């Protein structure tokens, strides 16, 4: 038996009031449509998945290209029924199709599998996935033939509900299974005689019943899974729901999260047990955090790897970087792309790094900019040190070898090599390479004028008196 998945994703999403196609809006750090495709790929191979695109089709296709699914174009968006009409040729040869909505992103693969199995067991022409919602406003309602019968008489859209039907809480999730033959034998009977002047896929329920076909409904175990998003406010609710799900999954696996409702963790993030995540932390993109780390409040970590026992103090921003075991960061450290921080190294208060490799146990504890630099192990970078990596046209590299001591407030003008074990005096401006074990000073010699202040003060006083008496 051949089964395809068809995902409707051509709509504009007018109610979102955004220029961007609705299905490309993100929750949990991933586009709505990508969530749906990922769930579908757990049920059928990618080559049996057909995504119907229309509004901003180019952008949707290119953003989903890596998922290797098929695309069908619905040039004009004339409703969900019309979308499925457009899939006719593509799904010819499949016995059944599972129809998903690109804007219902919390759906789990296990629920799709349940829908498929129920549909096949019921020998139905159409099976509707439903849910009982506290607030069903806005959704189509499913009319069962009798309250406990699986058989359905039809689906009524919100705008067409009678006052009596408005009380019905069982909604249409927009997710269906169809036997392909009866669907396409009758799909041309859809009409646009409704509030939106569109071809409603929901009308297939009534049409098939009138043809004597079996139409049934399956209520989803978890109503939140089938929530759709038509407005940005609804999208925010789904985002919160999904992230709470991610936080719960991590907590179940042994990660401590204080106040999980405040953290923002993307779906793909991995955290190893015995790590602690404090309130208001964001872990984004392709981020991996090892065992025994502690991420203190207000830190934002994106596309980065932290090995084990890393302490990230408050307010750090870490992007596209790699931090080795036992390192200590922050508070308020900024690791920009390409920072590789060595084992047990320290990057302290208000230190910014970019394309830096720092060796084991090296420290930059206060107020520094380290860019385009290779720093060995056991190096001490004094407070306020700056690598001058940019000459206005090009970027240049700084090499600081093992065991170097850089005094506070030094400026290292790249390209430059600071040799192994050497010592840079505080406040130096270093423009020439420093050989191994040398002391380099690059600053004006201090001049001290004894008694200068008091003699000056006397002169000032005499001058002021003169002004007053004139
Ligand atoms: C639809 C259902 C409603 C159900 C709800 C669940 C219909 C007529 N109504 O309403 O019963 O309760 O979903 O979320 O189907 N799309 C296309 N081409 C089009 C129009 C839409 O591909 O021409 C896609 C959209 O991109 C979207 C999906 O189909 O992913 C659903 O369309 P939408 O307009 O959001 O339908 P709802 O009004 O939510
Ligand atoms: Ca919708």
Q: What do these coordinates show?
A:
- By secondary structure, this protein is of the alpha/beta class.
- The protein folds into two domains: 3-226, Spore Coat Polysaccharide Biosynthesis Protein SpsA, Chain A; 252-440, Hexapeptide repeat proteins (UDP N-Acetylglucosamine Acyltransferase, domain 1).
- Helix content is 19%, strand content 29%.
- The protein is built from eight helices and 39 strands.
- The strands form six sheets. Strands 13, 14, 16, 17, 19, 20, 22, 23, 25, 26, 28, 30, 33 and 36 form a 14-stranded parallel sheet that branches. The chain has an eleven-stranded parallel sheet with strand order 12-15-18-21-24-27-29-31-34-37-39, with helices on one face. Strands 5-4-1-6-10-7-11 form a seven-stranded mixed sheet, with helices on both faces.
- The longest helix is centred in the middle third of the chain and has 21 residues, at 232-252.
- It starts with a strand and ends with a helix.
- The model has no long low-confidence stretch (mean pLDDT 96).
- Calcium ion is lined by residues 103, 228, 230.
The coarse silhouette is: elongated
Structural class: alpha/beta
Bound molecules: uridine-diphosphate-N-acetylglucosamine, calcium ion
Main β-sheet, in a few words?
14 strands, parallel
